[in-house]
Write a structure and sequence with these properties.
- The protein has 188 residues and is mostly helical.
- The chain contains nine helices and no strands.
- Helix 5 crosses helix 7 and helix 8 packs antiparallel against helix 9.
- The model has no long low-confidence stretch (mean pLDDT 95).
């Protein structure tokens, strides 16, 4: 089935915003890069912010589906899937078009806590947290919510380090620390 014009706009705009940023990319740049007129875009989106929200929703869906699928492919055990998150991140960091986390970028450009784009970015992180909490609970780990928050700090730090290229193999370092945290949280 052929994607709708709206879906086509969102798909093409995603890569443009990921590469160039949100505020730095005006509608003229989007039009030029994706080859669709402003009129066509505004037929589907009232504002640029509405387009950005649609892009973030698509990226959220794609990224979470990819991450959770990779985690479950590495292992079918919930405890091991928590560690596998870092293996999946390492794969992502090695992709030639890796340019950091779109949600970290969006939240840093739209810093007002009540801004819909900030909220959408935070929601993405919350959905990942919920999934990890479910896995930690299934693994019968001690204080699963606290453990998951620690793992998320490692995850986000690894993403930023990979984007800045400040540390070689940040996912591997984060995985090592995560293994220690998970081991310490295992109920005896």
């Amino acid at each position: 089935m052929r994607p709708s014009k709206r879906d086509e706009i969102v798909n093409k705009t995603l890569q443009v915003l990921y590469q160039n940023g949100f505020h730095a990319t005006g509608m003229d740049t989007i039009v030029k890069k994706i080859g669709i007129s402003k009129t066509a875009i505004y037929n589907h989106f009232r504002t640029k912010d509405d387009l950005v929200l649609a892009v973030l929703r698509l990226r959220d869906e794609h990224f979470r589906n990819w991450l959770f699928r990779r985690m479950s492919k590495f292992s079918d055990q919930p405890k091991d899937q928590l560690l596998a998150m870092f293996d999946a991140l390492e794969e992502w960091f090695e992709e030639p078009d890796f340019m950091g986390c779109m949600f970290i970028k969006a939240a840093s450009e739209y810093q007002e806590l009540e801004h819909p784009i900030f909220k959408q970015s935070a929601n993405h992180k919350e959905l990942i947290e919920m999934h990890l909490c479910k896995l930690a609970g299934e693994a019968n780990l001690n204080e699963p919510e606290q453990l998951v928050r620690k793992l998320l700090v490692l995850k986000e730090g690894a993403i930023v380090s990979a984007h800045l290229r400040s540390i070689e193999n940040p996912a591997s370092y984060a995985r090592d620390v995560a293994a220690l945290l998970i081991s310490a949280s295992t109920l005896h």
